[in-house]
């Protein structure tokens, strides 16, 4: 994973440039915008400034000088906030406040039903239901085949790790230790791709890079990773505690038993007996890949690399008996949905006028909506003997 992070930022340092003349008409940041773009100019040409009354008729700026302003320009505070990711497509990112992602989790959870349960998602839900059912009928055969292949190539089934740090911590009867483990075999290394420490490292890397480079997009990506991963985790854990499906390595019958609505104490007493469905590892991995890929669409290697690593993670969990194949579709879909919600709320589409020279930098940022926790309506009331105030929030 350290290699993946280093590779990502080394490629990220190569910023693609687009020489285009664009006019965008936008309403909502998520709507499709119409644009008129011109092809990129050859490297030895010059860019002419627009003629203005009292100005020289044809002053020229070398293309190399214009590229220093480039698609990723710094604002008056020295921060990079506007990013041109394709001809006619520019996004604006505000610098997130520290730990603001924690405040965004309730907003994302509130927006999830409206985002997911739309009429145009009917086929998606049908596909998730059918694929989960088909995989469930073949779960035992798939798991047996995956483990047989692992034995054939010499890949250990056991997911074993070495504990480097362990600090015991209890809340009531719940055992919630702080521990940091590292894998000690190849299958465990694949499984570690979905570990929380892996995604924390990725998010922290964006935060450190954004802080050093004053890069708002990197800082916002780190913040969105936090809110998407934790929002996904809350829903995944809720579903696990409602469905109570056995993991393959402790299953008492083919495809495992389902203990619906296990009590809290029963669940905590032996977690593997109840927490198979849906997968949290693949959900978290999908959320991470989607946030990064959506914020950096000009880097086309992100999704192929990320999905390949997800494939290794998915196989390792079949081989070590942690999950069934039918645990995957719902988990992956949840990670994808919360990542999309986080990205949608974290950036704004930018308009570009036809004559950039007449408008300073040439970009006008569309107005941003207030955070959800500032959109409430405060209303005092006086009903008979009762006096007070109410605060209402509209998602």
Automatic annotation (TrEMBL):
Keywords: Signal. The keyword Signal applies. Residues 225-346 form the Phosphatidic acid phosphatase type 2/haloperoxidase domain. The keyword Signal applies. InterPro entries: PAP2/HPO, PAP2/HPO_sf. Residues 20-46 have a biased composition (Low complexity). This is Phosphatidic acid phosphatase type 2/haloperoxidase domain-containing protein.
């Amino acid at each position: 994973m350290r290699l993946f992070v280093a590779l990502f930022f080394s490629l990220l340092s190569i910023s693609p440039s687009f020489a285009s003349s664009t006019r965008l008409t936008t309403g909502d940041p998520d709507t499709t915008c119409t644009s008129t773009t011109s092809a990129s100019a050859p490297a030895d040409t010059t860019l002419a400034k627009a003629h203005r009354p009292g100005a020289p008729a044809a002053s020229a700026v070398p293309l190399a000088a214009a590229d220093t302003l480039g698609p990723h320009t710094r604002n008056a505070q020295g921060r990079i906030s506007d990013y041109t990711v394709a001809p006619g497509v520019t996004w604006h990112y505000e610098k997130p406040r520290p730990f603001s992602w924690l405040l965004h989790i309730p907003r994302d959870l509130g927006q999830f039903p409206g985002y997911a349960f739309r009429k145009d998602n009917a086929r998606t839900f049908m596909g998730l239901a059918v694929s989960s059912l088909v995989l469930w009928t073949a779960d035992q055969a798939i798991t047996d085949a995956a483990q047989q292949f692992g034995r054939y190539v010499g890949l250990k089934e056991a997911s074993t790790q070495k504990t480097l740090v362990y600090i015991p911590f209890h809340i009531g009867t719940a055992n919630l230790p702080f521990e940091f483990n590292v894998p000690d075999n190849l299958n465990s290394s694949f499984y570690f791709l979905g570990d929380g420490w892996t995604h924390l490292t990725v998010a922290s890397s964006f935060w450190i890079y954004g802080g050093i480079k004053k890069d708002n997009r990197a800082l916002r990506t780190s913040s969105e990773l936090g809110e998407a991963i934790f929002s996904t985790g809350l829903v995944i854990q809720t579903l696990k505690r409602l469905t109570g499906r056995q993991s393959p390595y402790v299953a008492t019958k083919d495809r495992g038993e389902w203990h619906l609505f296990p009590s809290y104490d029963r669940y905590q007493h032996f977690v593997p007996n109840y927490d198979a469905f849906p997968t949290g590892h693949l959900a978290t991995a999908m959320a991470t890949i989607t946030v990064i890929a959506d914020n950096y669409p000009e880097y086309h290697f992100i999704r192929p690399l990320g999905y390949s690593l997800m494939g290794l993670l998915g196989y390792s969990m079949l081989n070590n008996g942690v999950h069934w194949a039918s645990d995957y579709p719902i988990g992956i879909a949840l990670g994808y949905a919360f990542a999309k919600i986080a990205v949608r709320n974290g950036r704004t589409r930018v308009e570009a006028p036809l004559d950039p020279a007449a408008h300073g930098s040439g970009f006008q940022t569309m107005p941003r909506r207030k955070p959800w926790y500032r959109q409430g309506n405060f209303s005092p009331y006086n009903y008979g003997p009762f006096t007070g105030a109410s605060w209402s929030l509209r998602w």
